[in-house]
Design goal:
Oligomer: single chain
Organism: Azotobacter vinelandii (strain DJ / ATCC BAA-1303)
Strand content: 25-35%
InterPro entries: CA_gamma_LbH (IPR047223), Gamma-CA (IPR052265), Hexapep (IPR001451), Trimer_LpxA-like_sf (IPR011004)
Number of helices: 1
Family: Belongs to the gamma-class carbonic anhydrase family.
Shape: globular
Protein name: Trimeric LpxA-like superfamily protein
Pfam families: Hexapep
Number of strands: 19
Helix content: 10-25%
Structural class: alpha/beta
Length: 186
C-alpha cells in the first residue's frame, strides 16, 4: 500500500523498483532504481521535528528491504539506506540512521541513531544503538553495540562475509525483474 502521510508527502518510487502489494510505504520516502521491497515491509516517514519538518527516508539503488522489515524515523530525522545494501527479514532501522553502500543487516537486527559504514556486515539478532561503525566493520550475531562499546575488539569483515552480502544483493536484484514480470498475473 502506497499512501500519503498526515503532512501530505507521497512516496516517490522508481519505475524499475518492486514493492510487494502487502508492503506499506508511507510519506516522504524515496525508493530508487531496482530496489526490492518484500512482503509486509513497512517504510514510514511521517513524524515531524519541532519546526514541522521532516527529512526523507531514502532507499538507494539496487538495495533490498526484505520481508517484515520496519523502517521509521524519530522526529523527522533522515534514514538513508545506501546502494546495493540488504536489510534482512524482520530487522528494524529507526532514524536517525545511515546505512552505507554494500552493507548487510542480518535477520531481526535493530539499528537506531547510528551510521553503518560502507561494506559492513551486522549479523543476525544484533543491535547497534547510538554508535557509528566504520567502513568494512563486522558485528557478530547477537551482539549489542552501544555508545561506549570498544570497537577494537571486533574483527574486520571477512572475504566470505563480503561475498555473502554481495550474493544476497545480486539475488534480490534478480527478484525485482522476476516479480515485476509477474505483477499483472495476480
Amino acid at each position: 500500500m502506497i499512501r500519503k502521510n498526515p503532512s501530505g508527502h507521497l512516496p516517490v518510487i522508481a519505475e524499475s523498483a518492486y514493492v510487494d502489494k502487502t508492503a506499506i510505504v508511507c510519506g516522504k520516502v524515496l525508493i530508487q532504481d531496482n530496489v526490492f521491497v518484500g512482503p509486509y515491509a513497512v517504510i514510514r516517514a511521517d513524524e515531524v521535528d519541532d519546526n514541522g519538518e521532516m527529512e526523507a527516508i531514502v532507499i538507494g539503488a539496487n538495495s533490498n528491504i526484505q520481508d517484515g522489515v520496519v523502517i521509521h524515523s524519530k522526529s523527522g530525522a533522515a534514514v538513508i539506506i545506501g546502494e546495493y545494501s540488504s536489510i534482512a527479514h524482520r530487522s528494524i532501522v529507526h532514524g536517525p540512521c545511515v546505512v552505507g553502500d554494500r552493507v548487510f543487516i542480518g535477520f531481526n537486527s535493530v539499528l537506531f541513531n547510528c551510521r553503518i559504514g560502507d561494506g559492513s556486515v551486522v549479523r543476525h539478532n544484533s543491535v547497534v544503538d547510538g554508535r557509528d561503525l566504520p567502513d568494512n566493520f563486522y558485528v557478530p550475531p547477537t551482539e549489542h553495540i552501544g555508545p561506549h562499546t570498544d570497537l577494537d575488539r571486533y574483527p574486520p569483515v571477512s572475504a566470505s562475509a563480503s561475498e555473502f552480502s554481495e550474493d544476497v544483493a545480486r539475488t534480490n536484484i534478480d527478484l525485482v525483474s522476476g516479480y515485476k514480470a509477474l505483477q499483472n498475473e495476480f
